[in-house]
Amino acid sequence: xxxxxxxxxxxxxxxxxxxxxxxxxxxxxxxxxxELPPALPLAxxxxxxxxxxxxxxxTGMSAVxxxxxxxxxxxxxxxxxVKAAARAAVPADDIGTVLFVNVxxxxxxxxxxxxxxxxxxxxxxCAFAAEISGGCVAGLNALTLAAQRLLLTGDRAAxxxxxxxxxxxxxxxxxxxxGYIFADGAAAVVLSxxxxxARLLSAATLTDPTLSGLHAEVPSTRTPVDLTARARAxxxxxxxxxxxxxxxxxxxxxxxxxxxxxxxxxxADVAHVLVPAIGEPFLYRNYLDxxxxxxxxxxxxxxxVTGHTGAADQFSALAHxxxxxxxxxxxxxxxxxxxxxxxxxxVVLEVQ
Length: 352
Known about the structure:
The chain is an alpha+beta fold and about 350 residues long. Helices cover about 30% and strands about 20% of the residues.
């Protein structure tokens, strides 16, 4: 008599990793800055056959940032870094860590460390310069890593830069997935032990590897990168739509809850909720409706005329808030990012 094969154990429970930055030395966001190319009106993109009128209307956006062909990723990232460093009034010698985040690899020179090049741009003799990927969540992940380095070293400040260029023939910014338009641009923040306009309160991250196949490459002739085809293949062969949506919403809410719990604030008390710069249908379905957050507490006015700059979205939105003088002392700001894999990252700040 043979023994039955043991059942496959369930996937380990998913628990966010949360960090409390209020119990030790204070860390501050000293500055935020963005470098966004001129906006291309979507009406012009429709006229030129770059996107259908139906898909353009679906996004709810009116324009997207598109760089000139002569612009390089380093041009955008360097400009954002220099602006952020100048606004922070932090001596270059104090910047001991420089991190660069890039989502789409084909727009950058191969075998070149852009993090070290950015350190040169801001004249920082940093000891640690590195590049980080992992999708659109990587900007907040890099900020969290920079904060940990500041607490573990004698460094006074860190610079985190995120940026992307989305270009043919490698990607069609308008037709990767209905409801999304990928934008060119870069944004940067300086994290400092000394005074800044906002204090870092907490951060939380979570990864659900069971959803990694959502973005696994599959054959497609529709466009160079077809995110719709990838998701469809996963939903047809791996996991049903309702289960996927349930896991996505559970992962997002648990990560937000973990970060807010350590910051000792509720989402209802948050002044600004900075979410990925995605089209209007996804904005409401993925964030506003599940979280019960009104669009007035987001930076949709910024998103609607720029588009999705990848991992730079949250830093760009933060710079927009500061530039528009929309932050008051005591305001709590929550930065939310999602990325390939599937990952969530949340950072909580309090304006000083």
